[in-house]
Design a protein that fits this description.
This protein has about 140 residues and is an alpha/beta fold. It is about 55% helix and about 15% strand. The protein has helices spanning about 10-15, 20-35, 45-55, 60-70, 80-95, 100-110, 125-130, and strands at about 5, 40, 75, 115-120, 135. Helix 7 (about 125-130) links the parallel strand 4 and strand 5 (about 135). Helix 5 packs across helix 6.
Length: about 140
């Protein structure tokens, strides 16, 4: 039983059957559940995922949040140390790691995640990021 952190693209892909990452997101979330992992998303990434539902009104946001509780999907808060790690990642990697991505990576690092799943293939290798777990890029 470990910890799997997901990036916003995984959640978006999971919800949208027409998304190019839909099948991969479903598969990786299923794998995490089969391993007995706790699955979590950084609060910053959850905010990104809720932008589109928010355009449709509060009932859409509520529907997504209720679904996430049934998944179950935990939400990790942004603390000072995570913010510092994210800032360092962003400073070190420039345009290869945008701030939203740096926050996801930093969350995985700070929480000792076993697995980090993203749809972003442009990230530097995990050894350059300082992430010691399994990095899965769909």
């Amino acid at each position: 039983m470990g910890l799997t952190i997901i990036d916003v693209g995984i959640l978006i892909g999971f919800f949208d059957a027409s998304d190019a990452h839909h099948l991969g997101a479903k598969s990786e979330l299923s794998n995490a559940r089969q391993r007995g992992d706790q699955i979590a998303i950084p609060a910053s990434a959850l905010a990104e995922a809720l932008v589109s539902p928010a355009r449709y009104g509060e009932s859409s946001v509520t529907g997504v949040l209720e679904f996430l509780e049934r998944l179950p999907l935990g939400v990790t808060e942004l603390g000072i140390q995570t913010a510092v790690v994210a800032a360092r990642l962003r400073a070190r990697h420039g345009q290869k790691v945008k701030l939203p991505d740096a926050l996801v990576i930093a969350t995985a690092i700070q929480n000792g995640a076993d697995v980090l799943i993203t749809t972003d293939r442009g990230w530097p290798p995990k050894s350059e990021l300082g992430f010691e777990g399994n990095l899965i890029s769909l």
